[in-house]
Specification:
Elements: E1 2-8, H1 15-23, E2 30-36, H2 43-49, E3 53-56, H3 60-70, E4 75-79, E5 83-84, H4 89-99, E6 104-112, H5 116-132, E7 143-147, H6 148-154, H7 165-173, E8 179-190, H8 192-197, H9 199-215
Parallel strand pairs: 1-2, 1-4, 2-3, 6-8
Antiparallel strand pairs: 4-7, 5-8, 6-7
Length: 235
Amino acid sequence: MLSIIIPTLNEEDYLSSLLESIKKQAFGDYEIIISDAGSTDATLEIARKYHCVVTGGGLPAVGRNNGAKIAKGEVLFFLDADTILPENFLHKSLAEFNVRKLDFASFCITPYPYKFFAGFFIELFYNKMIVVMEKILAHSAVGILVKKEVFEKLGGYDEDIKLSEDHDLGRRATKISKFGIIRSARIIVSDRRAQKDGWLATGVRYFLCELYTIFIGPVKSDIFKYKFNHYKEKK
């Protein structure tokens, strides 16, 4: 079984699209766990409509760890709530995961709504980079496939990390397991963070975070002012 774990906080505008895309997958041996951080909108109503298991959450690392604790699957799939899975995504990605004998994997991404500048920016500065760097420096974000036994050996996500805790998990995983970037399927992800914070500001923040992580270590202070789901706030 595959356990799909999604941290949420007021995701009524996006969650139904993700859950509907999962429902349409040809692959059917899965459970969906929603780790909710206290939503006050229709998020939990949507989760129950799609027969998801609901547990408590917090910041993303906390929510993912909480979901993993109750997961029944041998493989865990961590997803952000503002994503969509293309047709046959689960079948293709799990087939490649097994054929390549991976223990931990992540994905390239496609932004939506698709715009040329955004697509070019992400393709050049993220997708191509993470594939080229696959054997040198692991990158894992937005979607992560990992065997549950490996996740447990890693001790899960480091809940003290403020930003890029997902990359930290992937980099720790390379020390004890086989890591790879899935080529056969991509995750469709909303560009809402870049739209809210600005493309330049978002790119600079993550670039500086990458440098900080490489040369100093995991980001455990609030130096980059990360916010979890602030998209409905006024600018």
